[in-house]
Design goal:
It contains 9 helices and 12 strands. The protein has 268 residues and is of the alpha+beta class. The chain has 2 domains: 2-154, Ribosomal Protein S5, domain 2, CATH 3.30.230.10; 163-267, GHMP kinase, C-terminal domain (Alpha-Beta Plaits, 2-Layer Sandwich), CATH 3.30.70.890.
Length: 268
């Protein structure tokens, strides 16, 4: 059985406060985009894990797909063993939620493969144990995310027909570095109000990580500026970076990026 975990972008991202548990209180709108990994699971006598595509750094025991499998096996002992293969195509540590999507889609894939009949409420509870962004990918529709990112509210938002250009320059921005440059504060305007009017997006739909990260890594800010120069009606860094996206009414004809950048384009 195969599925295709997708990336997400953030429309606005506010860092509201620091929590007692050490996490930050955030508010953002997450939107799925059609940049995919491929995840396959096959019943097998011998448990196997392998990956192709982009290299996945770190120990395999930290992989969210394997953590998702471990979570379900804890509550459903005796599940058959799996041969799991991931083809990695979404850049990692890039603000696109690729690892979170892999974990969430692994839960959904095993739910179907093993006929567990878990509804989305329970799948989201499992996903929250994997990471703050993971629950979003269970329903995988535009959502306002609050708390650590795990409290989700649906929003009527359509980017259908919009042309997306997404650039990842391969610059690593650590989570600690990203948060260190932000002074948490409540947003000046309601996110939902700004999202309801595209005419306000460029001036008011802000990512609080951008000012400090653009100072430290001006190359990322230059990508955003060039996307606007090419005619984007909105451009922003996704999450804590370093991916930057531009939204266009039609495909831009004069946008160029460096050969070593990851570049993805699609009609949404």
């Amino acid at each position: 059985m195969i599925s295709f975990p997708n990336a997400k972008i953030n429309l606005g991202l506010h860092i509201i406060g620091k929590r007692k548990d050490g996490y930050h209180e955030i508010e953002t709108c997450m939107v799925p985009v059609p940049l995919f990994d491929a995840l396959e699971m096959i019943l097998d006598k011998k448990p196997t894990w392998n990956s192709t595509g982009m290299d996945i750094p770190g120990d395999s025991k930290d992989n969210l797909i394997l953590k998702a499998e471990k979570l379900l096996r804890k509550d459903f002992p005796g599940l058959p063993t799996l041969n799991i293969h991931l083809h990695k195509n979404i850049p990692m540590g890039a603000g696109l939620g690729g690892g979170s999507a892999d974990g969430a889609f692994a839960l959904k894939l095993m739910n179907n493969l093993f006929d567990l009949h878990l509804d989305n409420f329970f799948l989201e509870e499992y996903a929250e144990q994997l990471g703050s962004d993971c629950p979003f990918f269970i329903e995988n529709t535009p959502k306002i995310a609050c708390g650590r990112g795990e409290i989700l509210e649906p929003i009527e938002l359509s980017l259908k027909g919009t042309y997306l250009v997404l650039i990842n320059p391969g610059i690593h921005v650590g989570t600690k570095e990203a948060y260190a440059g932000v002074t948490p504060a409540p947003p000046k305007v309601k996110l939902e109000e700004v999202l309801a009017d595209r005419g306000r997006w460029k001036a008011e739909l802000v990512n609080d990580f951008e000012p400090s990260i653009f100072r430290t890594h001006p190359e990322i800010g230059e990508i955003k500026a060039k996307l606007y120069e090419a005619g984007a009606f909105y451009s922003a860094m996704s999450g804590s970076g370093s991916s930057v996206f531009g939204l266009f009414e039609k495909k831009p004809t004069d946008f160029e990026s460096k050969d070593n950048y990851f570049r993805f384009e699609a009609i949404l």
